[in-house]
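2024-03-11 09:14:02 DEBUG pipeline.ingest accepted 1 chain
2024-03-11 09:14:02 DEBUG pipeline.ingest length=119
2024-03-11 09:14:03 DEBUG pipeline.predict start
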Amino acid sequence: MGFQEKEVIDALRISGNNHDAACDWLLSDRRPVNEDLDQGLDPNSHVYKSIMSNPVVQLGLNNPRSLLAFLHMLENPASTAQWLNDPDTGPMLIQISRIYHAEKHSASESQPHRTSSEC
Protein backbone atom coordinates (compact mmCIF):
# COMPACT_ATOMS: atom_id res chain seq x y z
CA MET A 1 0.00 0.00 0.00
CA GLY A 2 3.05 2.25 -0.02
CA PHE A 3 3.65 2.71 3.70
CA GLN A 4 7.14 2.72 5.15
CA GLU A 5 8.09 -0.22 7.37
CA LYS A 6 8.44 2.04 10.45
CA GLU A 7 4.91 3.37 9.91
CA VAL A 8 3.53 -0.16 9.70
CA ILE A 9 5.39 -1.24 12.84
CA ASP A 10 4.15 1.84 14.72
CA ALA A 11 0.59 1.16 13.56
CA LEU A 12 0.78 -2.44 14.77
CA ARG A 13 2.27 -1.35 18.10
CA ILE A 14 -0.39 1.31 18.64
CA SER A 15 -3.22 -1.05 17.67
CA GLY A 16 -1.97 -3.94 19.81
CA ASN A 17 -1.15 -6.07 16.73
CA ASN A 18 -4.72 -5.81 15.44
CA HIS A 19 -4.23 -5.75 11.65
CA ASP A 20 -7.61 -4.15 10.87
CA ALA A 21 -7.10 -1.42 13.47
CA ALA A 22 -3.54 -0.85 12.19
CA CYS A 23 -4.85 -0.39 8.63
CA ASP A 24 -7.52 2.00 9.88
CA TRP A 25 -4.88 3.98 11.76
CA LEU A 26 -2.60 4.14 8.70
CA LEU A 27 -5.44 5.33 6.48
CA SER A 28 -6.87 7.84 8.96
CA ASP A 29 -5.72 11.21 10.24
CA ARG A 30 -3.19 9.63 12.55
CA ARG A 31 -1.51 11.45 15.34
CA PRO A 32 2.25 11.67 15.20
CA VAL A 33 3.90 8.77 16.96
CA ASN A 34 5.81 9.69 20.07
CA GLU A 35 9.37 8.50 19.52
CA ASP A 36 9.63 7.86 23.25
CA LEU A 37 6.65 5.49 23.27
CA ASP A 38 8.66 2.80 25.04
CA GLN A 39 10.41 5.23 27.40
CA GLY A 40 7.57 5.74 29.86
CA LEU A 41 7.18 8.74 32.12
CA ASP A 42 10.15 10.92 32.94
CA PRO A 43 10.95 10.31 36.65
CA ASN A 44 11.53 14.05 37.04
CA SER A 45 8.12 14.99 35.61
CA HIS A 46 5.32 16.37 37.76
CA VAL A 47 3.00 13.54 36.66
CA TYR A 48 5.44 10.83 37.76
CA LYS A 49 6.11 12.52 41.10
CA SER A 50 2.37 12.91 41.75
CA ILE A 51 1.72 9.25 41.03
CA MET A 52 4.60 7.97 43.12
CA SER A 53 3.79 10.19 46.11
CA ASN A 54 0.21 8.90 46.37
CA PRO A 55 -0.27 6.57 49.38
CA VAL A 56 -2.71 4.26 47.53
CA VAL A 57 -0.14 3.78 44.78
CA GLN A 58 2.69 3.27 47.26
CA LEU A 59 0.75 0.56 49.08
CA GLY A 60 -0.32 -1.06 45.83
CA LEU A 61 3.22 -1.22 44.48
CA ASN A 62 4.25 -3.25 47.53
CA ASN A 63 1.83 -5.99 46.51
CA PRO A 64 3.51 -8.67 44.33
CA ARG A 65 0.29 -9.00 42.33
CA SER A 66 0.88 -5.48 41.03
CA LEU A 67 3.98 -6.57 39.12
CA LEU A 68 2.05 -9.53 37.76
CA ALA A 69 -0.77 -7.18 36.71
CA PHE A 70 1.57 -4.77 34.93
CA LEU A 71 3.38 -7.57 33.10
CA HIS A 72 0.12 -9.24 32.11
CA MET A 73 -1.38 -5.95 30.84
CA LEU A 74 1.76 -5.23 28.79
CA GLU A 75 1.54 -8.66 27.21
CA ASN A 76 -2.23 -8.61 26.76
CA PRO A 77 -3.87 -5.16 26.96
CA ALA A 78 -7.31 -6.79 26.82
CA SER A 79 -6.71 -8.09 30.36
CA THR A 80 -6.83 -4.57 31.81
CA ALA A 81 -10.48 -4.91 32.83
CA GLN A 82 -9.65 -8.05 34.81
CA TRP A 83 -6.95 -6.22 36.79
CA LEU A 84 -9.08 -3.11 37.29
CA ASN A 85 -11.74 -5.30 38.91
CA ASP A 86 -9.22 -7.18 41.06
CA PRO A 87 -9.52 -6.12 44.74
CA ASP A 88 -5.72 -6.16 45.17
CA THR A 89 -4.71 -4.18 42.09
CA GLY A 90 -7.83 -2.28 41.02
CA PRO A 91 -7.67 0.60 43.52
CA MET A 92 -4.04 1.30 42.67
CA LEU A 93 -4.62 1.17 38.89
CA ILE A 94 -7.66 3.43 39.13
CA GLN A 95 -5.73 5.90 41.28
CA ILE A 96 -2.83 5.95 38.80
CA SER A 97 -5.27 6.64 35.96
CA ARG A 98 -7.00 9.42 37.91
CA ILE A 99 -3.73 11.13 38.81
CA TYR A 100 -2.31 10.78 35.31
CA HIS A 101 -5.35 12.29 33.62
CA ALA A 102 -5.78 15.04 36.21
CA GLU A 103 -2.13 16.06 35.89
CA LYS A 104 -2.18 15.90 32.09
CA HIS A 105 -5.39 17.95 32.05
CA SER A 106 -3.97 20.59 34.38
CA ALA A 107 -0.72 20.73 32.38
CA SER A 108 -2.60 21.26 29.11
CA GLU A 109 -4.70 24.04 30.63
CA SER A 110 -1.62 25.82 31.98
CA GLN A 111 -0.06 26.01 28.50
CA PRO A 112 -1.05 29.10 26.51
CA HIS A 113 -3.46 28.42 23.67
CA ARG A 114 -2.36 29.40 20.19
CA THR A 115 -4.59 31.62 18.13
CA SER A 116 -5.32 30.88 14.50
CA SER A 117 -2.91 33.63 13.43
CA GLU A 118 -0.07 31.80 15.25
CA CYS A 119 -0.62 28.50 13.39
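2024-03-11 09:14:41 DEBUG pipeline.report Helices lie at 5-14, 19-27, 46-52, 55-61, 64-75, 80-84, 90-110.
2024-03-11 09:14:41 DEBUG pipeline.predict end
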